Give the backbone structure.
Amino acid sequence: MSPLELDFDSCYRAVSARDARFDGRFYTAVTTTRIYCRPICPARTPASRNVRFYRHAASAEAAGFRPCKRCRPELSPGDPGWDVRGDLVGRALRLIDDGGADEQGVAGLARRLHITERHLHRLFVAELGVGPLAVARTKRLLLAKQLLTETGLPVTDVAFAAGFGSVRQFNATMRETYGFTPSELRATAGPRVSDASLRLRLHRREPYDVEGVFAFLASRAIPGLEVADRTSYSRAVPGGTITLTPRQDHIALDVAVDDTRQLARVVARCRRLLDLDADPDAIAEILGQTSLGPLVAARPGLRVPGAFDGFELAVRAVVGQQISVAGARTLLGRIVARAAAPGGLFPAPSHLLETDLTGLGLTNRRIETLKDLAARLAEGQIDLDGGQDPAEAVAGLLEVPGIGPWTASYIALRALRDPDAWPTGDLVLKKRMAALGITDDHIERWRPWRAYAALHLWSSS
């Protein structure tokens, strides 16, 4: 199915079969009930004459449809088509997921993308049928709906956690869009936790290689910042901590923070960290027909772990140059011990720039690279959290003395979420390819999923 077009017959067949492969790719709106659903909704399939299909939940809501209380569109995994796109709309959607529109408004979002607000609106309407403001509003409403349904948070806390400026605005928006108030939704939502703890379900596409993702994160956990093993992952975030725990069909996210207004950002970054929105079938379809076929069959659902913070990942990549994973962890732990922000957070670029990094085991050249990198991010020359075109970000990284193609590609692979990034010159990849009898000319055959090819090879060792 094209990223820009929806074929009615294909969508209707998917809905009739409740095909989970299409969950998050489009939404089904029923004209007789004015409700929109996920393709996997267990309700009776509506007659085709009463159905409309929309690429985004915001498009369905703008057309006057309300989210289904049974299949709960707020639980859909993200559309993998948008997840891998590096164009303006794809980047803007990721920034909206990250709370960018809530903090800076659409004007601020456009400035970060270096385009006019009018041009951004035109691009959104052309591809989604609605503007970025409507998309941001739908994101807030769906997050609020999930919080009201799954948690015992007070309605006031839900309003601010979802990104609304006031409880009055929250109540009015929900009533206007959904036809019921937050309290009315909660009263009909069914069983939920009775306390004010904050646990959300992060749904994923199956198959999902839980063990592989959590083992990868555990082996690279930075002392003082992260605690991880094959069954859970915890880390410091602004105002507290988060814990991710795999469950049978989702990831449980437990949030313990003083201020929940950053919740949308936490959720979006956790999804990227765990690569929950990837399309394993599309990846396997390409890689499974190549020399990597046996590896793909052995590790179905393998993912590329992302990054909670782009600068943090870039520092990891620089520190990890030409040393073991264990050695890099030790050095990164020392950096965090000396330069951590209050609450044990990884230092921001401006803070690392002012920190004395001597005496930690880093070479002078490595320190100079880290300082130069931090300066460029602090000045806004490089954006590793979604605002900049990936190719431009990589070009900017390559201008930093001490950052070569391998480091830039590794950052692109994990922080910029480039599914086709390939860590040029990686010695482990070369050894694994040689052991498997795979020659360099096969690398081109793995496009556009070379990042996943790299993970299969790394994991095979």
In short: The first strand starts at residue 27 and ends at 30. The two ends are 35 Å apart (CA to CA). The chain has four domains: 8-76, 83-150+152-188, 198-261, 310-460. The chain has a mean pLDDT of 94.
